[in-house]
Amino acid sequence: MANPNLWILVSDLQGLIEMQGVSRTRVRRSTPLYSYEVYHSLEEIQNWMHQMNQSHSQLLYLFSIGKSFEGRPLLVLQLGKRSKHLKKAVWMDCGIHAREWIGPAFCQWFVKEALQTYHSDPSMRRLLKQMYFYIMPVFNVDGYHYSWTTDRFWRKTRSNSTNFNCHGVDANRNWKVKWSGEGASLHPCADTYCGPVPESEPEVKAVARFLRKHKKQIQAYISFHAYSQMLLYPYSYKDAIIPNFKCVESAAFNAVNALYSVYGIKYRHGPASSTLYVTSGSSMDWAYKHGIPYAFAFELRDTGYYGFLLPESLIKPTCTETTLAVKNITNHILKKCPLS
What we know:
Elements: H1 13-30, H2 42-55, E1 60-67, E2 73-79, E3 88-94, H3 102-117, H4 122-130, E4 131-136, H5 141-149, H6 202-213, E5 218-226, E6 230-233, H7 245-263, E7 268-271, H8 272-275, H9 283-289, E8 294-300, H10 315-333
Parallel strand pairs: 3-4, 3-5, 5-8, 6-7
Antiparallel strand pairs: 1-2, 2-4, 6-8
Helix pairs in contact: 3-10, 7-10
């Protein structure tokens, strides 16, 4: 007898995965230009970063903050008008979980949009003159590559430091803030494995080192995930109100309203622990605990129909609305939002 509580969302999952591959090949053959409306492999994204750095040197600066477990460079783009003075900054990372392909697509889109609208959009020009954006399009480079070559639903890094025949650590459970607590697993084969110790993953250690070094400059940490259509802020590890709740809540409220104004897509917003679920060792909580007053995690489209297999036809609308939300948040950052 069929379970009345179960229903089929996608009848041919493998077909949907294969469709993304067919679509990518078709787009590449039809246009010599880099398309922001398809998903790109790690090699393509990193080549794009080098090319953008060369062609837009007045507003972009490419640098590496370290190497992954498998030896790949951890590349970051500094976006903003160069200044001799210390400018406020926003850190943005995408692809901390390998299978969430819409994240890296958004980080690329945001860079493209900023460069294309710098001269025509006064608000974007003001942001790039007054702030830097440190943008890491693919945080989990090894896992992202693996999700293209081997397992489309891979989540973790690709480290192998245990006696178990299981690879990887959840890079969003590996931070030194309530590490190994609720919402994380100590079993190496679990999807939420928090690692043998905090910052065991070279990718996490490299980003944490950069954020520590620049914490006086960085006013916001924003991490992009999928899926659920949410805008989350601390805390993840406990159900409590942050000291600067009022201005963080205001920024989140205005951001989801700005996002809604584009296509009518509704996002829930609030503390991660009560809006999504309790997790420990997250990058967002770590950033907040280390003095970054605005710390957010976006869960991008959709709410589960396509899930991690968001079609390429939805890249443009998703990125367009999210760009407006991010601009809204960064405008708040130019105001004071003390931690207490």
